[in-house]
Amino acid sequence: MNKKKTTLCIHGGAGNINPSMMNAEQEKSYRQSLKEALHAGYSILEKGGAAMDAVVAAISSLEDNPLFNAGRGSVFTKKGLHEMDAAVMDGSNLAAGAVAGVRNIKNPIVLAREIMLHSGHVFLSGKGAGEFALNRKLEFAPDDYFFNKERYDQWIAIRDSDFYQLDHKDDNLKGIPVNTDHKFGTVGAVACDVSGNLAAGTSTGGMTNKRFGRIGDSPVIGSGTYANNKTCAISCTGHGEFFLRSVVAYDVSCMMEYKGFSLQQACDEVVQHKLKKLGGEGGLISVDAWGNYYFSFNSSGMYRAMRNSEGNEEVAFYGKP
Ligand code: ASP
Which atom of ligand 1 is nearest to the CA of 240? Predict the structure, then answer.
């Protein structure tokens, strides 16, 4: 077997992320947090481990970090709860696991992988998913574990309105005052391991003040998350409603499979043209089976990082790619 280039990419959300919003201290904590997650995942790839394990390790690290809108740092719903969504997909056999609207699960991404491996299903939601997590002896955490002052203030500012808010975007608030100093987001990872196997995962608390059991693109296979060894692994972040309607992750894969596009061409066609035309803001991280990677976003920024076996490491927040 030929050893392939190993690559891990992660994101911590895309959106309205500008240098004017962050001081040196905040930049430092984001940088450090992204590097920690990279290390958690890449150390697995380095030892010849599986892409799926690297993805779950990197995302678990981001879920444990209150800076990001996933796991511990999840935003508040209209009812003041935390309802989390997550998904994983294995590009080697197209196996997938996803979960929506779960509460008190410490690492929803681990639950998504358990669903893929042990449930006989792909997508579980709400109470049933919680029951399954209990059966699998997954770790639960009390409500106060998920309490975060910044997120609480974001929610308090809009909870009596009909507005919902992307964690890192405030355009739909139309004058309602919110704290826009700190921008956080959904998290995701994609990886290519030494065998050329691909995996993708995404985890999120969704949108502040969301209601009616709203589910975004993140846990929907093909929209926010997709992996196929024939093409690419993708994890998205942005305004979920648009990503759902555009079936973004699978569309990138299709552009490669049916049109022969390169990874970069496919990502840009979908994110910079098709999605943008519909009004969808956000971005994605991607890797192909040769270990090539690409970040594409049409928002002002995206928390992102990558590391590969050629010794490249990159951590960035701002700017058009
Ligand atoms: N895509 C996520 C959702 O709509 C939000 C995000 O990426 O921050 O739930």
Answer: 4
